[in-house]
Write a structure and sequence with these properties.
Layout: H1 13-29, H2 33-40, H3 44-51, H4 59-69, H5 73-89, H6 95-111, H7 130-159, H8 164-167, H9 171-179, E1 207-214, E2 217-224, E3 229-235, E4 242-247, E5 254-258, E6 265-266, E7 270-271, E8 278-283, E9 289-292
Antiparallel strand pairs: 1-2, 2-3, 3-6, 3-7, 4-5, 4-8, 8-9
C-alpha cells in the first residue's frame, strides 16, 4: 500500500511540487509522521494536513523538517515562499463569486418587499400630451423608490445586518449560503467566533496579511476575503503562550487562544471589512509581547 495518499487533483502545480518535495525529504530521512512530529515539535495531525496538501505549513515548520532530515533549509524555504504566494492569491479567485452573493442578496431582499405595484390606470379623457406629462413624475417616483431600496440592500450587505436576520428568516441568508464556494460555510458576521478551518475559510481561501517574530515565536494575521474575516496564528511557541486578534477602533472585539501540547495555535475568527481593521498579537510565557498588523485600509 502506498505510504502517501494522492494529492487533490485541483491542487495548484506549484503547491503540489512543494508538497511532494516535503514528502520525498521525509522518505529520505526515513521518518514516520509520528517521528517527524517528535523531531520538529509540530503535532502528527498538523503534519498529516501539511503533507496531505490540505494546509500549507508555516515557514518555521518547513525549516524544522529540513533540519530534522539533514537537508538545506534554504532550498525548502525558497519553495515555500512560492507556494505561499500561490496559496494566498487563491482566495482572489472568489471575487466573482462574492459579486454573485451580493447580487443574490439584492434580488432576494427586493423580492421581500411584495409584488410590484400595479400600473396606474389611464385618465378617462386625457388630452394628447397629458399622458407623457403625467407619466414622467410617476416614473421619477418609482425610480426614486427603487434607488432607496437598492441603497438599503447595499448597506445591509456591507454591514452584515443585525436584528433584521432574526425578525425576517431571510431569503438573503439562504441565497448567501447557496452562492458561497464549495466547503465555505459562513461569511461576514456569521463567521465571528467560529473555527476558520472548520468553516472552510482557511487553506486556499486565506492568506497571511501580516506577520512578525515575537521572541522565538512566529505570529501571523490570517485573512480570508471570501469569509470577510481574520484570525491570528502562532507557530513555534511554548505551552502557555497566548495569541489574540483584536479589532481596531471603538468596539475592540477580540478572539484569543493559548498553546497547549501543540507548538502552534490559532484563534477563532473575527469579521472585518478589511485586514487592516485588526491586529494579531502574541504574549509569551517569557514575558515577550508583540503584534503584527497590516496597513490600515
Amino acid at each position: 500500500m502506498a505510504r502517501w495518499r494522492p494529492l487533490a487533483d485541483d491542487l495548484d502545480p506549484r503547491v503540489r511540487e512543494f508538497t511532494e518535495a516535503l514528502r520525498r525529504q521525509v522518505d529520505r530521512g526515513g521518518l514516520s509522521v509520528a517521528a517527524l512530529a517528535e523531531a520538529t515539535g509540530y503535532s502528527r495531525s498538523s503534519w498529516e494536513r501539511y503533507l496531505g496538501g490540505r494546509l500549507l505549513p508555516p515557514r518555521y515548520a518547513v525549516v524544522a523538517l529540513a533540519e530534522a532530515t539533514g537537508a538545506d533549509p534554504a532550498h525548502f524555504t525558497t519553495m515555500w515562499e512560492v507556494a505561499e504566494r500561490v496559496w494566498s492569491r487563491a482566495e482572489g479567485r472568489h471575487d466573482v463569486t462574492m459579486e454573485a452573493v451580493r447580487i443574490a442578496e439584492a434580488r432576494a431582499a427586493l423580492g421581500g418587499f411584495g409584488p410590484a405595484p400595479a400600473a396606474p390606470s389611464p385618465a378617462p379623457s386625457p388630452a394628447p400630451a397629458a399622458p407623457a406629462v403625467r407619466r414622467r413624475p410617476v416614473l421619477l417616483f418609482v425610480a426614486g423608490v427603487v434607488a432607496v431600496v437598492l441603497a438599503v440592500v447595499g448597506v445591509t450587505a456591507l454591514t452584515g445586518g443585525d436584528g433584521d436576520d432574526r425578525a425576517r428568516p431571510g431569503p438573503s441568508r439562504t441565497a448567501r449560503a447557496a452562492a458561497l464556494p464549495a466547503g465555505v460555510k459562513c461569511t461576514g458576521q456569521e463567521c465571528t467566533g467560529k473555527d476558520p478551518e472548520g468553516m472552510g475559510c482557511g487553506g486556499g481561501n486565506a492568506r497571511t496579511a501580516a506577520a512578525a517574530w515575537v521572541g522565538g515565536a512566529y505570529v501571523e494575521m490570517r485573512y480570508s476575503r471570501v469569509c470577510a474575516a481574520v484570525w491570528a496564528r502562532i507557530s513555534a511557541g511554548a505551552p502557555g503562550d497566548t495569541v489574540s486578534v483584536t479589532e481596531a477602533g471603538g468596539a475592540r472585539r477580540s478572539q484569543r487562544s493559548r498553546i497547549g501540547r501543540d507548538p502552534e495555535a490559532y484563534t477563532s475568527m473575527l469579521a472585518v471589512r478589511a485586514p487592516g481593521a485588526a491586529r494579531a498579537c502574541a504574549t509569551l510565557t517569557t514575558g515577550s509581547h508583540g503584534c503584527a498588523a497590516p496597513p490600515p485600509g
